[in-house]
Amino acid sequence: MAGRTVYDKIWDAHAVAERDDGLTILYIDRHLLHEVTSPQAFEGLALAGRHPWRRDANLATPDHNVPTTNRAAGIDGIDDPVARTQVVTLDENCKRFAIEQFEMTDVRQGIVHVIGPEQGATLPGMTIVCGDSHTSTHGAFAALAHGIGTSEVEHVLATQCLVQRKSRNMRIVADGDLGAGVGAKDLILAIIGAIGTAGATGHAVEYAGSAVRALSMEARMTLCNMSVEAGGRAGLVAVDDTTIDYVHGRPFAPVGALWDRAEEYWRGLKSDDDASFDREVHLDASQIVPQVTWGTSPELVLGIDETVPAPEAFDDPAKRELCERALDYMDLVPGTAMTDVAVDRVFIGSCTNGRIEDFRAAAAVLDGRKVADSVTQALAVPGSGLVKQQAEAEGLDAIFKAAGFEWRDPGCSMCLAMNEDRLYPRERSAATSNRNFEGRQGYLGRTHLVSPAMAAAAAVAGHFADVREF
Amino acid sequence: MDPFVSHTGVVVPLDRANVDTDQIIPKQFLKSIRRTGFGDNLFDAWRYLDEGDIGMNANERRINHDFVLNAPRFADGSILLARDNFGCGSSREHAVWALAEYGFRCVIAPSFADIFFTNALKNGLLLVVLAESQIDAVFSAVATTVGFSLTVDLRAQRIDGDAFHATFDIEPERKRLLLEGMDDIGLTMRHADAIRAFETAHRERQPWVFREGG
Description:
The complex is a heterodimer.
Chain A: H1 6-14, E1 15-18, E2 24-27, E3 30-33, H2 39-47, E4 58-60, H3 81-96, E5 100-101, H4 112-119, E6 127-130, E7 144-147, H5 150-159, E8 161-164, E9 168-175, H6 184-195, E10 203-208, H7 210-213, H8 217-225, E11 234-236, H9 241-247, H10 256-266, E12 279-284, E13 291-293, E14 301-303, H11 317-330, E15 345-348, H12 350-353, H13 356-366, E16 377-380, H14 385-393, H15 396-403, E17 406-407, E18 428-431, E19 446-449, H16 452-461
Chain B: E1 6-13, H1 21-24, H2 44-47, E2 79-81, H3 94-102, E3 106-109, H4 114-121, E4 126-129, H5 132-144, E5 149-153, E6 158-161, E7 164-167, H6 172-180, H7 184-189, H8 192-205
Parallel strand pairs in B: 1-2, 2-3, 3-4
Antiparallel strand pairs in B: 1-5, 5-6, 6-7
């Protein structure tokens, strides 16, 4: 038999049946739910008189539009009545269908893609879905994880399966060592810059190479998280000691003899030496400098030492037009050094960069420094209640607050600005989130994506700055 | 789901690549717990000059007359013509609901993002992939002919209009789903015995996946 990729192996282990039309019914091990993309699915389920196929596969939490202040007030603390209804609806649906939920005031509440791994609800080899495109995050555990729409949320609730056509295999190999001050966020932004925002469309992407092997689990989550920004529904990293060590002892992880059995299976979740990939991309990680996006698509990204490009720099007329639109929306002039671009607000958090290592990296830059007076607001939003607790135990909150950051309660917050945390028209942010689309962080807001360390550096300098010089 | 068999309509040209789902339906409208009510807010930040919010009356808003959807000649448009990577970004199915509720039955582009593609299928919105050169030809035809319309025939997998003729590919099962407007969940439920059998075996092989009391 020909060698198989990690993706092939997980796929094969979950294929229930092949339909006459060639599509596969794929079994889903874990389904994460949140308040925004689930209400219509639960309603559909109820209207059809259906019920969840396997309740214990599901785990829910509100994250997208919860406020990041006054968490103790719970649902009463949500001023926006429409948002409140959505969170209440999730509560009601979870009770009605007996689905486990970490409610707003539960210390385990947080962004779905932070709490899954944190709880061990994300395990290697699983198929994991959620009505959120950044479900690709969980691929860091060699899980097959991807985002789905609301109709598919209903489909998974009702049948514990999805009807799928298999993706093609793609491997992105990053060899060499990432330099000091350069991390997983810079690596994935550089990858997206190289292959484009549709570069991995139709593919499951496996990240490999010495630079990837050297990453922590949290860094691998950052990497896999933004696979979707490269067009790939799923990103994966093979299991190694780093994976096993992270999972061990998590609340939902197996224990005792079952752990031993699981570990043995998980250690086989790597691509065979003779596995073939439909597409392969190689990068030299040692050449990557801290990245910052300048435009309105994640592929419009530069090294911090570069200048804003001119439309003429692009050969492809479509790219040139994209560049012109982006320059206009972002109010940037070609030739401007990125280090001369001033920021109004700084956001550190999100499913991309809302974990403890992210706050440690930012705190290391902020320690003993102050946020520049010209910066209107600097927000630190932990990805979960447990991340917040851990950061406070390490005294990181004190460093953030002393520097002039606001230390908030967990949620998606200014990544997509469904709650009160947002950019106002024409404001510019340094954000550790994942999308710089027009209006993403607020109507007419201008987003620049960076790593946590780079966001901290921008907060201190008042403009983008090379964190390697801090 | 409403079936899609054949549709004739005016083509609306949206000459932009990478149109993301944040543009198709901005996040503030995602707070709704319903499947309807998104049509007025399709492309909200491009279509209006003021900042939109849930519950606003579209008739009282400031219209961006420079945006193609607001041009009188495209007022009744029902086929959207777009560029590469249409529907990238967030998995929000609200984007498809908004396009469909506005009145679009079909989107034609050189490529679509994966999740958007699946979501469209579930809602009877036909996505047609044509080659870049064919797309260019339709953009030209729309620019020169007021009221330029196309007939999209799913059964024949053909698109026809004045001096424009093309065929398109679609996977047979997707075609069948659209033609018959089938209930996807009902189809999968026919395999319930196979799913149960798989689950029992899966539980033997990987018991750690299952939590007690499931």
